[in-house]
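Morning!

This is the sequence you dropped in the shared folder:
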Amino acid sequence: MPVPFNKLSLDGTELEYIIEALASGTSGNGRFTRSCQEILARQLPAQCVMLTTSCTAALEMSAILANLRQGDEVIMPSYTFTSTANAVVLRGAVPVFVDIRSDTLNIDEALIENAITERTRAICVVHYAGVGCEMDKIVSLARQYDLALIEDAAQGFGALYRGRALGTFGQLGALSFHETKNIISGEGGALIINDPTLVERAEVVWEKGTNRVAFASGLVDKYSWVDIGSSFLPNEITAAFLYAQLAAAQRITERRKRAWMRYQRAFADLEVEGLLRCPFVPPHCEANGHIFYVLAPDRDMRARWLRELKAYGVNAIIHYVPLHNAPAGRNFGRVAVPMTVTNDTADRLIRLPMFADLSENAQDEVINAVRELALSTRRHRSTRASEALAVDRPNPSARRSPPS
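The structure's back. Tokens below.
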């Protein structure tokens, strides 16, 4: 039987809460929205959390709240989804791309400072695969240069850096509850606000530029248009779906972590031999099992592995086309440093099936197929490809799996 790349992991109470939401007659910002926001703000913890229609919407709110304007610059990785850069471009600002680390595939914090110019207004980090960026250094740089710090934690719900939730280090963070994420609401996201001075304006931006939240709280006798904004808040049905998922979040995440660790154990000997690369989680990070990828020896081998995995019935996929290589990236952004690791990673990365309900039998099919392909590579690989893997492979003894 074919192994899908993703499958929704439902708690079983989603429909019950959706029916409640429909019966309430509330279109948005009702009981389920408020309950989800309270749960997230308490669990992270954060000053304030606001549900949004998507992580894209949360990032766009972040760009408004950071007061980005025409000609401003925002430093970010190129190995990310388009929303990270679109949020900046929509304000007239310029994404400035820097390279990623070869171990975690996160923004290389050592390259950020040299990319800062007089026009730089913010740093936007992306926690790839739910593994935290090196936030100690990045927070320090943001403070030193008086820059806004935004965290694209789309993949990071349930993951920690030095015991602290991703999305809670910068002034603003963005979460995704898209159907491919660990915890879902179909579409959906959340804006994490860690700076209390931004909360009041965020409420206005969230409510289409009006002071409707203040009106609903009895603080004003009528509401009107007071700032820019848009329709960023989700409908109550989406919030009801998310409410059920949040109740099951720990169970869902633990199942994904177990599948993640099973992949890692299955491929450990192949990685030591230099036949592929697995994800790396630094000791001070706790990942959430969101993505398990392998890096093939080179671009041609990646293409062959993808074809053969498909023939095996394994739905494995590539990930991002780096933004700096995309037409819009060349048009709206600029590159600050050579993008060597980003380009190499994009050419070699394969995402394997990963979801909470992935059975051991189905996962064994994936494992056996990848092992067969990697072992066949031993006979055909070039010396050059082998050396490339050896150079960028982290020390396996330093690897730490997401905790069970």
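Headline: Residues 396-401 have pLDDT under 50 and may be disordered.

More detail when I'm at my desk.
O.
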